């Protein structure tokens, strides 16, 4: 073991302190450090890395924003395909889905009681993250589910995406795949459009388009200014069946949070389709107060055992469905209503 210089020790300590502070701030929404303290430690790290460049590591918080724009994005193959979701547009179609997955299981086994996890369907862009020995090595768009675009440099600028996992008993796991949704909080979306309005630029029609447009930016400095955010919802360890690290979707969401990811806390463990329907109806109105856009609820059978038994069709998992809300027409502005008096 080479003797670490005192500078190397300090750099490592600063990286750990700053990463913990970011995790607390962006993921737990519970800051542990004043911004001024964070900024002072960050500047100390920058000065040490400038003085000793070989102490710079890819997971250093100073390495989030690239200096120069990329010229293009390369196409990459997902290690594990990203599937699409079958859609349901009301509770009757949700019940139809339940009949279908139950029929698919019988006669072997169709459990009477099953748990579902209901997750708000965040209206953003799906993203696939790959971690090697705990360090973020790739971020890719969904693309067609098999091939996506490597947008790692842009992904690194998203503060709620950890550059290094908070190891949680996964020390010796070589590769971890995480999927989730990149989104723009509504407040940020409005600010971006106000700036574009002032600059005479074309406005983004909705947060989802703003996310897609931002992730396509070749200059990560522009991406860094857009304050994109990320909710994780799937964890895969290639080569190990998912059940070895968690047995249910519920446990997987908790593990994702412990690893350092933001997870939407509005997800709910439902013990029946009726409870799913209640959750869906409650959020149909509640989502209008939400700080980010949603377009439905994603309903998943909770246990991985059941998920594996049901498997996938050509395109969809049989064990999940997107229960959508009626598409939101642009709110009709009062002055546009002509009243025939
Ligand atoms: C892992 C599975 C397949 C069950 C899955 N797939 C999802 N999606 C697939 C379809 N997607 C998609 N996107 C573009 C074109 C076609 N399909 C967009 C992501 C999920 C999206 C959300 C969300 N938005 O909040 C979520 N909480 N859970 C998901 N879970």
Describe the structure.
The protein is of the alpha+beta class and 341 residues long. It has ten helices and eleven strands. The protein has a five-stranded mixed β-sheet. It has a four-stranded antiparallel β-sheet with strand order 5-4-7-8. Strands 1-6 form a two-stranded antiparallel sheet. A hairpin with a 2-residue loop joins strand 4 (125-132) and strand 5 (135-141). The longest helix has 22 residues, at 6-27. The chain is globular and about 70 Å long. Bound molecules: the ligand CC(C)(C)c1nc(N2CCN(c3ncccn3)CC2)c2cc(C(N)=O)c(N)nc2n1. The ligand CC(C)(C)c1nc(N2CCN(c3ncccn3)CC2)c2cc(C(N)=O)c(N)nc2n1 is lined by residues 83-85, 119, 121-122, 126, 142, 181, 233-234, 298, 300, 317, 320.
List keywords for this structure.
single chain, 341 residues, alpha+beta, 5-stranded mixed β-sheet, 10 helices, binds the ligand CC(C)(C)c1nc(N2CCN(c3ncccn3)CC2)c2cc(C(N)=O)c(N)nc2n1
Oligomer: single chain
Structural class: alpha+beta
Strand order of the largest sheet: 2-11-10-3-9
Q: Give the count of helical stretches.
A: 10
Radius of gyration: 22 Å
Q: Could you tell me how far the N terminus lies from the C terminus, measured between alpha carbons in angstroms?
A: 87 Å
What small molecules does this complex bind? ligand 3BD
DSSP E strands, number: 11
Give the helix proportion (percent range).
25-40%
Beta-strand content bin? 15-25%
Order of helices and strands: HHEEHEEEEHEHHHEHEHEHE
The main pleated sheet reads as: 5 strands, mixed
Compute the average pLDDT. 92
Which outline best applies?
globular
Which regions are unreliable across 5 or more consecutive residues at pLDDT < 50?
Answer: 330-336
